[in-house]
Amino acid sequence: MTNIGVFDSGLGGLTVLRELYKHTKANYYYFGDTLRVPYGNRPKEEIEKFTYQIVDFLEDFDIDFYVIACNTISVSVLDKLEGKYKKKFFPITKAGLRASEDFKGDFLVLGTKATVESHFYKKNIEKKTHSRVYEVPAIKLVDLIENGQSQGDKIDQALKEYLSLANEKKIENIILACTHYPIIKESIKKNLTYKANIINPASYISDKLTSDLDESRIKIYLSKESRASKKLLAKLIDHPYTIDYVRIGDGD
Questions:
Q1: Three-class DSSP category at 85
Q2: DSSP secondary structure code for residue 31 in this structure
Q3: What are the contacts of 95-99 at 24+ separation with CB within 8 A?
Q4: Helix pair angle (92-100, 71-85), 10° resolution
Q5: Predicted pLDDT of residue 251
Q6: Is 134 in the active site?
Q7: With left for phi above 0 and alpha for psi between -120 and 50, is residue 62 left, alpha or beta?
Q8: Rounded to whole angstroms, how far apart are CA atoms 245 and 70?
Q9: How far apart are CA 11 and CA 196, in angstroms?
């Protein structure tokens, strides 16, 4: 029996969970911190504290290994997680690097403030290739998506700002360096003035995962109930699941 913990700052990790259960049969325990999302604009110490609270909660389910379905957590806490819990953590950022290997040309990294300021993608891609990597912190997008806005004037207005560099330079590849962003992929395409490769790292996350089960079972935990979360769950998860709403830590 394989138990896989999957966690994210909110609902974005559902795009990763969807890819996981399609390719690897396992018992999935997902936690999305919908009460305290977004993490990307928070201090590193707070991101670390919240992440420990999530993993402490999931540890009760005899987890074999974890998938960090959040770029912000991946670039901020990965090393400390592996040291603290003595388990394997698969970060979405490594899947993003793997994805970049399939594309030629320059890259735009569209991510949270924390992910962009880590320069994780820029340092690693430019170290191995002749590609140039540009970075844009899309600080408004997670809040909009968590509030149920995947299209419309507010999303378009934000994307026109965040994609202006891509449109100016006609950057060949755009890495969605936040797992919320695949939810607005069509809006991203709409606001580009040219055709680019839009790269979703979640499509590469299951490459190294193994399990011994014949079917998947999914248990979802969210820290806040909302109409938007119910709509996104219905849209993204096409496999039977159960859901509970729980508070962890101090709830702030």
A1: helix
A2: E
A3: 95/201, 95/202, 95/204, 95/205, 95/207, 96/71, 96/121, 96/175, 96/177, 96/199, 96/201, 96/204, 97/121, 97/124, 97/125, 98/201, 98/204, 98/207, 99/175, 99/199, 99/200, 99/201, 99/203, 99/204
A4: 120
A5: 52
A6: no
A7: left
A8: 20
A9: 25
Among residues 3, 2, 6, 1, which one has the least CA distance to residue 237? 6
Is the pLDDT confidence value at 208 over 70?
no
Nearest to 185 by CA among 172, 195, 199: 199
Does the active-site annotation cover 24? Answer: no
Marked catalytic residue, from 4, 14, 69, 70: 70
Give the C-alpha separation, 66 to 218, whole Å: 14
d(CA 41, CA 33): 15
202 contact partners, CB below 8 Å, separation of at least 6: 15, 16, 18, 19, 69, 92, 95, 179, 182
Q: What is the pLDDT of residue 252?
A: 56
| Strands (E) located in 83-216 | 88-91, 107-111, 133-137, 173-177, 197-199
What CA–CA distance (Å, rounded) separates 63 from 86? Answer: 12
Active-site option among 178, 199, 202, 220: 178
pLDDT digits (tens, 9 = 90+) for 177-201: 999 999 999 999 999 999 999 999 9
* Bond prior to 91 in cis (omega within 30° of 0): no
* pTM for this entry: 0.94
CA–CA gap between residue 152 and residue 10 (Å, rounded): 21
**Strands in 84-231 per DSSP E:** 88-91, 107-111, 133-137, 173-177, 197-199, 217-222
